[in-house]
Amino acid sequence: MKVLITGGAGFIGSAIARQLIDRGDKIVLIDNFNDYYDPALKRDRIKAILGDSPFSLYEGNIQDLEFADSVFEKEMPNKVIHLAAMAGVRSSLEDPLLYEEVNVRGTNVLLEMAVKYDVENFVYASSSSVYGNNKKVPFSEKDRVDTPISPYAATKRATELIAHTYSHIHKLNTTGLRFFTVYGPWGRPDMALFLFTDKILKGEQIDVYNFGKMTRNFTYIDDIVSGTIAVLDANFECEIMNIGGDKEETLLRFIEVIEENVGIEAKKNLMPIQPGDVPSTVADISKLRKLGWEPNIRIEEGIKNFVNWYKKYYKIV
Question: Of the listed 58, 99, 124, 152, which one is catalytic?
């Protein structure tokens, strides 16, 4: 089948594209290569992960209706994996209007195209951030999520609601995946693992929020890829699913494993929690497990893989 992936040069998008190409699917990528982080990393990522494999790449903005229409009309994809978005809780506090334009309008444009061009399944990225300050753990898809605490989280919840209307009115198959703290080689520079590794190797202080009293279900990129593809193949009528690791890890343990792999003790700057952030995100993944999916990579293996990639990419002996 032909699969269109938005955010195709991104961390998750390129990894999914690789797996789909390997199994024989035709791949179409959309990415605008914006400067949220260095576009050179995105281009290097595409080159390293996809290499000379056959795929189509279109550069443009998903919120541009004419651009999106031209891509869909030419390529006629069978299915869509929509990952393109302005990411990050903290950055959304600085430019909430941009987050609304890209995340909400962009998703709406793509849903319109999916209906117009008779797409079989529309899988899109949501986020664990939609749970806000939910006190009940693990977070279940049945929990109320109507009190987001950041513009980013609000836009992701909005996309879930919009997708639901398209499923209801147009009978478009949609599934939103609430990602829980994705990490691994070729990850985003604004994520904790990348930031911490970079600063520790440079001998700089790392900012540790909530004085280290944070817990996460860290989810390795390979587990995200396998789970997303399982959902892509399932063609649910209208679903929301958590996708996360099955072990709750403390932030301090996460840092400890980085220290073990770089061989340097971190200089920690303990700070209060930042506005919009949450102290704990723990996933109930029972829904996704019904598809036979299981997260397999623990942080001890995943962080080692990242540090090895980081040293190779930045030529650190």
Answer: 152
